[in-house]
Amino acid sequence: xxxxxxxxxxxxxxxxxxxxxxxxxxxxxxxxxxxxxxxxxxxxxxxxxxxxxxxxxxxxxxxxxxxxxxxxxxxxxxxxxxxxxxxxxxxxxxxxxxxxxxxxxxxxxxxxxxxxxxxxxxxxxxxxxxxxxxxxxxxxxxxxxxxxxxxxxxx
Length: 155
Known about the structure:
155 residues; 35% helix; three-stranded antiparallel beta sheet; alpha+beta; two-stranded antiparallel ribbon; CBS-domain
């Protein structure tokens, strides 16, 4: 069985929470990567910033749908979700746009579990953590490369 350790990238481009959005976007584009882990000053993984987080800034402000019931207004979306959307749209730093407490995998995670996690949750990039430290990153392209290298199934 192929493990994450066999396909992950060990040289990881990281971002910091205080980095400006423009600089982070440039790093992702210049390095042709979908996302990058966000590391605090103590070297701890605090989030991940993906292209989709940055694209969210181009969205229109979502106006919550309301309906009336007994002369009262009932929102159809939560105030918490609306607040989260507004923060992402107005973000100027990585910490404001990133996804905090990202899902991670270990180097021992099998490719089947990794693929299921990516597909089921629409993840494109996952940090790889061992012993509480960031040791790599794995993306959908890394998984796809295993299909090229794999021998064809027996007929």
